[in-house]
Amino acid sequence: MFMSLYEILGTVEIGLVFGLVALGAFISFRILDFPDLTVEGSFPLGAAVLATLIVGAGWNPWAATLAAAGAGFCAGFTTAYLNVRFNVLHILAGILLAISLYSINLRIMGGPNKPLLGSATVFSMFDGWSTPSYKLAPILILVLVVAIKFLLDLFLSTGIGLAMRAAGANPAMAAANGVDVGRMKLLGIGIANALTALAGALFAQIFGAADAYMGIGVIIVGLASVIVGMSILPSRTVAQATLACIVGALLYRFAVALALNADFLGFKASDVQFITAALVTLTLIGRSSRSGMGRLRRLIGSR
Amino acid sequence: MRSSQMWKGMVLAAGIGVLTAMQGASAAEMKTVAISTIVEVPQLVETKDGVIKGLAERGFVVGKNLKIDYQNANGSIPTQQQIAEKFIGEGVDVIVPITTPTSQAMVAATKTIPIVFVTVVDPIAAKLIPSYQHPGGNVTGVSDAPPVMAQLKLFKEIVPKLTKLGFLYNPGLDSSKSTLAKVKELGMPLGIEVIEAAAPTTNEVIPAANKLIGKVDAIYVPNDTTVVAALETVVKIGKETKTPVFTGETRGVGRGALASVGLNYTQVGTLAGYMVAEVLNGKKVGDIDAVIAYEKIPDNVVVVNKASAEAMGVTLPESVLAGAKVIQ
Questions:
Q1: What is the mean pLDDT of residues B244-259?
Q2: Potential cystine with A267: which of A235, A271, B180, B198 (Cβ 3.0-4.6 Å)?
Q3: What's the DSSP call for residue B290?
């Protein structure tokens, strides 16, 4: 088989989880114009907190997942606080948090790797159902991610949400209109990292372990998802943009899956990163109005 | 605009269909063994080659009656997860994960497809198996726990005044933490105290090594991919300050370390290859005992480097030279 149903469902599942990372990147990079690198540490932080609470403290998996998101919020809040209160450059504040979270995660887990194999997870509730877990788990994640997307859309249209968007779009104007720009950054970057840590917690439960190296490249994947999603889908309204982020994350994961299956074309296992990048690039070129595909599309569209 | 996207989708789907048909034609009667690793570093590649060698020795030859699906996650854990899904979706006959996180991804993803892990230092702590003897379930494999006792005895033989041993490692690696605990435990009765120096990335190896100089009688570099990547630097510091540098793997001696007793990773992989062959021949995977490689490989090789010994101010005793492979 080129790609089995199992692999497709698994890819959807991971794509949706990374959709949460993309939503986080959307809030920090797009809405607040705050290039936040904390996520590289808050993704494994979510995983570490979750695994330690479930394995070490015997928490209910749902409560542990929620606590993981809370820990992510604290990490993001700290980054924004360094920036807002002490004027530490936003990128540097994120880097500082990300590198210190590496050590903090090792402390939390008491080591670099905390297995969840055999422990209760949020997916354990499907044990004993007649439909196999690999079909039900993506549905659970889908429901979760869609619910979070709508909550986020809703939040961004409330008074606070509008103030946050204004604070990112034009800080001077927002401040002149009575918006506390600093407070908006604290809240927004906190939420972005809560979403990332939530993604880390869910991912650890799929993967079967929390690992100190889980966060490598998460920021790149999150950003790529946002950009790919927004270049192929309309993103004029907030609801459209958040949908685009999730679709972008799914596409990115399918690019990886295609790359993994490209061996028959003579590619080697170590070429996966390159092929993934090439596929994403092709998608973006295909969308560009300067490419042949773009011109063709315009021709069809103008008819 | 919408219709053009739909067309693209349909062309892609048709292409996938053709490819599926092409692949299906040649796959009959072949056993498929799926091998994966998180990154490609020499010891992991040797492990992989060893698995294929072990399978060949037991009659499973690539291209004849065996197909190997080899995937490398390029260092990304999410990609590792997708590789697990790919393998399981394809319904391969046996999965051979190399390293701890790779094994965890596979074990979390299937309870039915046989898994033979290899090059995992502590499979019980990683919750891959409940015990070495008769692990049950669908998982067994080969641990590459280093022969720490033999190593410490060798170090002591070469540096008789050894009481303080520097341990240079990345605390983010499970295998190094596990080795550290072992070195501490086994070093105590030999009168060896362990002094740690942590290097979370390769860039921090130099300051970590410098921190040890003057406080230790020798430096031990475990089988730690982060520190081993900068081994030449550690060796240089050792030579400049006349501090012996030992490694947890013998390949390090070729790169300038003083000495080591270690595993030959091709042999480690071969052991796993034999297990995979047993599974392919119909034995239940849960009935195959998991093993620690150095207990099964009779001759752990002692390797010493004469030039480094001289530069580090050490005279190699005849007793060591007699049974060792000597690099000039």
A1: 92
A2: A271
A3: P
